[in-house]
Amino acid sequence: MTLLRASDYKRMPWKNGGGETVEIAIFPPGSSVEDFDWRISMATVANDGPFSIFSGIDRTLSILQGNGMALAIAAGDPRLLTKESPPLPFPADVPVSATLPHGPITDLNVMTRRSTFRHVVERHAGPFSGEAAGNITFVLALEPLTVSTNNSKNRLEKLDGLLIEAGLPFVIEADQSESAFFLITLERI
Length: 189
What we know:
This protein is mainly beta. The protein has strands spanning 2-4, 10-13, 20-27, 38-45, 49-50, 57-65, 69-73, 79-81, 88-91, 96-99, 105-113, 117-125, 128-131, 136-141, 145-148, 153-156, 161-165, 169-174, 180-188.
């Protein structure tokens, strides 16, 4: 397991220059936004506008903070995404336009190169037990929690992450009965 502290995440400009992203994790390590196999990041969206295009990439977006964002994907009707909405998967290589009907938001963005990886993003609350699926399972804490395996225990604060290797059983104990977190499964094709 690899613990990633929110204070150590890498900040960088958006690919389209319209804002800033906070890179949580990327594979292979040291790759760029042009050549990653998978990438997990957060971004604050403060203005309406287009998303960056990523050729050959699938992405899933979730709202972490704020009152929602409407996304028009591939010129379709806008879909309102809120903190309560399930994570929204869509291709990153089609035009996407964002509108902020109620002010700025912060989102969670998971992207995988379609030819090498696939991913699933799930939002959970409260206690959880399972086995790391795919090649990697990533836990992103929205509130403080503890992740335990057979022989180790990791304390996660708000927005800390934990990479768990495939097949490893784990238990998540929340500080509060309904502490929320995301489980992200990354699987090589």
